[in-house]
């Protein structure tokens, strides 16, 4: 079977974002456009700060730099859920996995992330937790 991986990644329902060792976006598929609101033209060449809430940027950048220096990530194959930001400024909750990308010399050259918009589920769970807390408060 001959698979065209570019066509596959372009058609995925999940966002695919690849960034270089400096945190500059080098790949942005159509689903990333849908999730974050930025076109590929706007995202390519921009810092990942584009989608990271300002209050989290320093911590993210420190962790990213550490991963680039060590060639490892503490998250491995874990599904991460974190806040993000849409082009409109609207907050998002995204779930994603990351994979380190290595060059021929074995050094880290970037990171690939497979991203899903998890905002609706996150908001539903928050409302349910709030409702449970209200019900527990009334039962005491």
Biggest sheet strand line-up:
2-1-5-4-3
Strand count, sense and barrel status of the largest sheet are:
5 strands, antiparallel
- Radius of gyration from the alpha-carbon trace, in angstroms: 17 Å
- Total strands: the figure is 5
**Helix content bin:** 40-55%
Beta-strand residue fraction: 25-35%
Shape descriptor: globular
Mean pLDDT score: 90
Query: Given the helix and strand composition, which structural class is it?
Result: alpha+beta
Multimerization state: single chain
Q: N-to-C SSE series?
A: HEEHHHEEEH
Distance between the termini: 63 Å
Q: Helical element count?
A: 5
Low-confidence blocks of residues:
none
Task: Give a description of the structure.
40% of the residues lie in helices and 27% in strands. The chain has five helices and five strands, in the order αββαααβββα. It has a five-stranded antiparallel beta sheet. Strand 4 (91-102) and strand 5 (108-117) form a beta hairpin. The longest helix has 21 residues, at 119-139. It is globular and about 65 Å long. The model has no long low-confidence stretch (mean pLDDT 90).
List the keywords.
27% strand; 140 residues; single chain
List the SSEs and their pairings.
Blueprint: H1 5-11, E1 15-20, E2 25-28, H2 30-36, H3 40-43, H4 54-70, E3 80-85, E4 91-102, E5 108-117, H5 119-139
Antiparallel strand pairs: 1-2, 1-5, 3-4, 4-5
């Amino acid at each position: 079977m001959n698979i065209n991986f570019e066509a596959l990644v372009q058609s995925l329902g999940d966002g695919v974002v690849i960034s270089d060792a400096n945190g500059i976006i080098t790949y942005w598929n159509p689903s990333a456009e849908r999730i974050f609101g930025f076109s590929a033209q706007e995202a390519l060449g921009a810092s990942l700060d584009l989608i990271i809430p300002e209050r989290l940027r320093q911590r993210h950048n420190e962790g990213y730099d550490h991963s680039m220096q060590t060639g490892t990530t503490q998250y491995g194959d874990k599904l991460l859920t974190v806040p993000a930001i849409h082009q409109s400024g609207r907050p998002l909750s995204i779930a994603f996995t990351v994979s380190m990308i290595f060059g021929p010399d074995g050094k880290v050259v970037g990171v690939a992330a497979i991203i899903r918009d998890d905002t609706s589920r996150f908001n539903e769970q928050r409302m349910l937790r709030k409702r449970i807390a209200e019900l527990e408060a009334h039962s005491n």
